[in-house]
Each structure stands twice: as C-alpha cells, then as structure tokens.
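Support request, please re-run this one:
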Amino acid sequence: MSTPQDKVIISCALTGAVTAKQLCPAIPYTPVEIAEEAKRAYDAGAAIVHIHARTDQGLPSWDPAVFAAIMEETRKRCPVLINWSTGGAGPMKDRVEHLKSRPHIAALNMGSMNYAKWSPKKQDFAFKFVFQNSFEDIIGFAKAIREQGVKPEMECFDTGHVFSHTVLEDLGLLEKPYHFSFIMGVLGGIPATARHLAFQASNIPAGSRWKVIGISREQWPLCMAALSLGGDIRVGLEDNFYLPHGAMATSNGELVDAAVSMVKLSGREVATVAEARALLWPDGGGNF
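Re-run finished. Output below.
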C-alpha cells in the first residue's frame, strides 16, 4: 500500500525570466508557446508548471493580460496545476496583479541574498546581483497570495530562509500542509549537495511538502538526492537546459521524461494531477 511519501510531485519550470532562445531554442516566449510546453510537460508526467510571463520578444512581463492569456491557452490544452512566479525586479504592485487570475500556486521568495554564478574558467561572474526580499515584501506578497486563494510555494535559497515561514505562520497567512522549495546551486545560497539538502529538509515542520530546485547541471544529482529523502522534484528549461547524459533538451517534456525515469528507478511513483491536489490540499479548497 502506497503512502503520501511514495508519491512524487514533479514540477516543471517552463521558461524563467531571462533564459533566451539564443541559448536554447526550446525556450518558450509567447502564451501559445508556453502553453504548448505546459502540455508537453503534463503529458510527460508533470503535475505542476511554474510560469514566468514573457513578451513575444522574450523580455520579462508582469502584464496581467499576458498571464491571463497563458492561463487560457494552457487550460485549453491540459489540466496541469498552474504556479505563477512573483519574484524578480520591480515594485510589488506590479508583481501581484496577475494573482487575480487565481492560479493554484504562487512562488514566494523567503529571504534576501547575493545571487551569483562564478566562472572559474573566466575568473569572473556570469551574473551577480543582490536579490532583495525584505520581510515587509514577504508579508505583503503572502497577504496578496492568500487574498486570491492561492497556495504559497515558499522558495528558500539559504538555511535562514526556511525559518522565515514562522512569521507568516504567526500572522495566519499559511495553511497546512506548507509547501517549500529549496533552490540550490546559486552562489550566495546554500551549496548544492545531498548533505545540505538533507539539512534543509530536516528544518521544516512535520507534514510539510518540499521539493528541490537544482540550478544548471546540479539539477539531476539533487533530484536523485531528493527522491531518496522523500521529497518532490522540479525540472525545466528555466533551471537547466541539459538532459542527464549531457545533450541539450528539445522541450520541457524531455526533461520531465528524464525525471519520471528517475522516480521509477527510486522505487517511488509519479503523482497525477489529482494526487498532487490531494497532497497539497488534503481538506479541499484552492482555486479549482
């Protein structure tokens, strides 16, 4: 008899905010392209798709109409659970309006950090910036997410970020089971190792759901570690372009296919959309 821990919710991050077709031709920009990738991910086994909106030229967009178009096109194609991003640059008022389209889940960044990628070969940063998420902003986003009946996915880039949820808990802004994501592989955050992942997982409240988000080629070893620890996993072109054997993916569906194979090798089972809903909303509710 299977238990909730036997089921693995696979999420797929379809496009990100800054990934570009010049680097990977499969990156989707338009609502139709994003929805087609959502369908490929769903068909391969993803229960959740994480989405940033883009202009047709590929620039980041917070236009609520673009998010609404993405949702409409996706719902035409499949019943996958939709997770909007709220992270990035720009004032909060511009980064919460799209929540009125009532996705199932919304990402909630849980702390500030230096966010960088260092190239030893070039002896320089590929990118670097201060990723600022004050408690005022965290609380503000959490309130906006709750007002729309959306479940927050608490994104934690470092150890201290995990404990920030206690503020939201005290304010009555969270409903159990809590939903955490551990982002690993970014310089300035927690190192991308199985040992560090196990430490992160040990710090969250009992009964919470958690997954790992491995950046770049760290994705696959971290997925394997998460599966052995009882966690969920995220793959997708936002985080990583490459399949486990090193070839560039031609779609998000290919990355999900690889994730499904890993789940099966681990002895666990891929959660369907219905099963993911039951795990994340065991008492019902949510934007369904």
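The chain has nine helices and twelve strands. The mean pLDDT is 95.
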